[in-house]
Write a structure and sequence with these properties.
By secondary structure, the protein is an alpha+beta fold. The protein is built from 11 helices and 7 strands. Strands 2-3-4-1-5-7-6 form a 7-stranded mixed sheet, with helices on both faces. Strand 6 and strand 7 form a beta hairpin. The chain is elongated, with a radius of gyration of 35 Å.
Amino acid sequence: MGRWAVYRLLCRRKSSISSYMFHTTPPPSKPPPFSDPTSRFHLLKPFSSSSSSSSSSSLALAHHYYDSHSHLHEYQLTANIPVKAFFLSTSINLRSIQAENAGNVVPPTSRNSNYVTLRFSHKQPEAIGMAFRNDVICHSYMVVFHYGSAVLFNVEDHEVDFFLNIARRHASGVLRETKKDDYTVMENPTLVEDMQGGADYIVLRHLDTDSIRIIGSVLGQSIALDHFVSQVDIMVEEFADINRGMEKTGTFTMHRKKLFQLVGKANSNLADVILKVGLFDRSEIAWREAKYAQINEYLREEYEVAQRFGNLDIKLKFIEHNIHFLQEVLQNRRSDLLEWCIIVLLSIENVIGLYEIAKDSMGGSI
């Protein structure tokens, strides 16, 4: 094989790859080893008189060039979908949000009624790095949960407020500080398995609305759990301050009403995590198909949902123990007060009795 034949072979390789990938800007990486056609020959070893060695060197060079550009083909087939999870309020009215956005509601595929999925605005595939068209990932999605979470898919940073305001209009108990978490979902049709996990991202062979619901459910529960953990942490710190004060003074000052408020707050947090957030409820979508169950289990392990709930439960037990102790102290104080009241009343009764006896005896002697 002559050197000009090798040159034509390499040109055909490069043009075929470039024509297949004309839709996407390549990812940031090292520049191609043969950015200039003439430079290809500078990297060749000097041609020997043996045609066989020249041919094998040319074929090796051609394979090296093709392999060095294969990562571009893989990037071309991968779409990156940003995911943003928010915890906005303690409750969102799903019926009113569905009525206001009836044209954007995605029909449910399960009987779970604690969330609603909305689909918005069409996006061109080039905007998300795709040279082929997937109708699902060419739209923006918002999964809204009745306990106050909202998860956005394929939404740019400058669009976030627009989508969150849709949920806020139907929310009650809006928080002063909105909690946020970021994640990334990738779609790669060439993936051998249904999914593959990574650091802060997950790769799916095919992204559909049920996948969006599963991912949104776990991220919504996780960000809600963050809120309840922070609330319990505040209570733990408050009881820690009380214990430190008791250590120094040997007593504490707390009104009975304040203690009952802490009891109610601890119980409501636990009830919200278990009942409203549904942390341990079975997902009907995941139960129906194994690939969704795999996504659900992976994300729950990735976000350590069970472990974080276990830590929350330990903190709540610490609060419960302190509440019982303080209740007993307050009850003993009340019992002591009642005992002193009884002693005072008995003393008054005895004094009155002695006065009457003395009065009677003095009247009889006169």
